Amino acid sequence: MTESSIKKLASTLLDAITDKDPMVQEQVCSALCSLGEVRPVETLRTCEEYLRQHDKLAHPYRAAVLRAMERVLSSRASELDKDTASTIILLASSEMTKTKDLVWDWQQAASGVLVAVGRQFISKVMEELLRKLHPGTLPHCAVLHTLASLSVANAFGVVPFLPSVLSSLLPVLGMAKQDTVRVAFCSALQRFSEGALEYLANLDRAPDPTVRKDAFATDIFSAYDVLFHQWLQSREAKLRLAVVEALGPMSHLLPSERLEEQLPKLLPGILALYKKHSETFYLSKSLGQILEAAVSVGSRTLETQLDALLAALHSQICVPVESSSPLVMSNQKEVLRCFTVLACSLPDRLLAFLLPRLDTSNERTRVGTLQVVRHVINSA
């Protein structure tokens, strides 16, 4: 098929995207994707042109077109030329931030396009996103979401940009008053930290092997200060959990002396949340990461916090697992991981805590204790 016939076919399909029948819409998107598999550049350019020329098209239909574009890009982004990539990036960026209100299906679809292109053209995508970060102004939630998603999808590509991203975001962190914005910041900081840790763990494959933890440590500590001392005190459970999820990987990037200085407050702060949340998986996962960070810097604070840690973790492992919920099972695994970390650092104290509990008359306590002992031995 010639380029003009591809464009004509794609345009005909796009004109049918507004059909009131959801089945027809789905068929149109599927056909666009099939066309895009064969002729990705022409199909994507036609979609871009269509959205640009139909500015009044309602957002559900815009989202449908963007989702079709993302599906094509997920397997065909490598076939794009730089000009086409740039055009698509500008379109998706514009669609994503066209309204300040949260219109999640539309904004997520546009974000998905940017992430898909970012696997192949990360510099262009990051440059566009950085242009969306204005001094003294809170970023659009969708921009934060996209930066977070890119950190997962392409850590090697994003991490070199992190110092610039953090220097733009941190000055406005304190301006975030709405929980939705704060949660978006937490998610982004979590993903940035995870991306940085992945990068640092694979420097032999990284584009810049000279990157060190110090490049992020000061900025991450500034963010930690806001998250732990201000946002963790929120009454909103969702925000508290978002903060906790971020603090786990962030703890690995804190300067060693700062982490040691914060542990006497950080560990009790996390443990206190066990009483406030019935769903404890994210607490246990984050606690495990913080303990690993503490052990890696040779923390002496762990010893003074050990009794409280062991008591809280032991009570978690002794809770009957009656639910088949994946999160409940995952929590058990994370709690056991915490015990393993402590066993590597303070084995004598751990045994002194566990052994007397094997003699108790409470069956659940004995079973839980045996579970810990078995896990620690198997992990040795």
UniProtKB/TrEMBL annotation:
Coiled-coil intervals: none
Pfam families linked: HEAT_Maestro_2, HEAT_MROH2B_1st
Domain MROH2B-like N-terminal HEAT-repeats stretches: 32-251
Keyword set, alphabetical order: Repeat
Every MROH2B-like HEAT-repeats domain range: 254-380
Gene3D superfamilies: Leucine-rich Repeat Variant (1.25.10.10)
A GO term from the CC aspect: cytoplasm
Name the UniProt record assigns to this protein: Maestro heat like repeat family member 1
Protein's organism: Macaca fascicularis
Phylogenetic lineage: Eukaryota, Metazoa, Chordata, Craniata, Vertebrata
